[in-house]
Amino acid sequence: MWCQLFSEPGAGSDLAALGTGAVRDEASGDWIVNGQKVWTSSAHTARWAILIARTDPEQPKHRGITYFVCDMTDPGVEVRPLRQITGEAEFNEVFLTDVRIPDAHRLGAVGEGWKVAQTTLMNERVSIGGMRIPREGGMIGPVAKAWRERPELRTHDLHQRLMKLWVDAEVARLTGERLRQQLVAGQPGPEGSGMKLGFARLNQEISGLEVELLGEEGLLYDDWTMRRPEIVDFTGRDAGYRYLRSKGNSIEGGTSEVLLNIVAERVLGLPSEPRTDKDVAWKDLAR
Ligand SMILES: Cc1cc2nc3c(=O)[nH]c(=O)nc-3n(C[C@H](O)[C@H](O)[C@H](O)COP(=O)(O)OP(=O)(O)OC[C@H]3O[C@@H](n4cnc5c(N)ncnc54)[C@H](O)[C@@H]3O)c2cc1C
Q1: CATH number where 59 lies
Q2: Same domain, 124 and 65
Q3: What is the pLDDT of residues 68-102, one digit of tens each?
Q4: Which candidate in 129, 206, 229, 242 could, as Cys together with 195 as Cys, close a disulfide (CB 3.0–4.6 Å)?
Q5: 128-161: b or e for each residue (b if 16 or more CB lie within 10 Å)?
Q6: What is the pLDDT of residue 23?
């Protein structure tokens, strides 16, 4: 099991602003890491983590970052659960105190971590948004099943909306399939951001429709006790769970607003957002 130590309390969408520091111990060549990460999915079950940390605060924010593999059993790694809207704690905050990482666990050159992280993020968006599922897999499956099996729930309005969402879900599924075939040849591009955008919108619309279709039954919730699940599950359990869990889909792996910016700039070629801080040394940025 692996987890991703990227986001911090002060660095989410603006990930390059991150402040967790890694300083080289000249005697051993190891890196000593101090800082805090947050929203780390599965940190409580992970044996290893991918970690980005600042190795040169004198450089502008995108340039002084280095990418490491971190051993989650190091005594300096403390994992504390964060409870979600579903009641579960799928993610955590992670405190790093004098964590020692051998230089052999550095991925890419010193200061080049942003480029490595881009590869991770592009792949993450495809893996979240373009999972391989059969027809009627994912969120649309339980709604279509309820529709077929329980005619008493049907209304004309819901029928129109369900048909539209069914078609959207099938188009998204086939687009994901095509994207994965392109990926065999190389790196995912910004198309993965488009895929993940559609995935979040669809999941939220479909799970909303399911709750409407089921009426009061859709509001029932099976278990509010605090649990720390072993896996991340977007579609499991009952309609109430799916409705609540899908809210995070437009945040995790990059928010929908940020992904829209990526599609606008890198797919459509529209002018980029003003970025006044990109040439300023990280240590001089307001935080
Ligand atoms: C379920 C879940 C699992 C997660 N798992 C992990 C994990 O395993 N590892 C990890 O590192 N992180 C993880 N995250 C964190 C996730 O990547 C961040 O929450 C996300 O990048 C947003 O950062 P933020 O929460 O700091 O929000 P902020 O960046 O503070 O954003 C706040 C709001 O401002 C908007 N916004 C920000 N910048 C812009 C902009 N330039 N243009 C338009 N709107 C903007 C955002 O869209 C958002 O609505 C997870 C999050 C969730 C919900």
Answers
A1: 2.40.110.10
A2: no
A3: 999 999 999 999 999 999 999 999 999 999 999 99
A4: 129
A5: bbbbebeebebbbbbbbebbeeeeeeeeeeeeeb
A6: 98
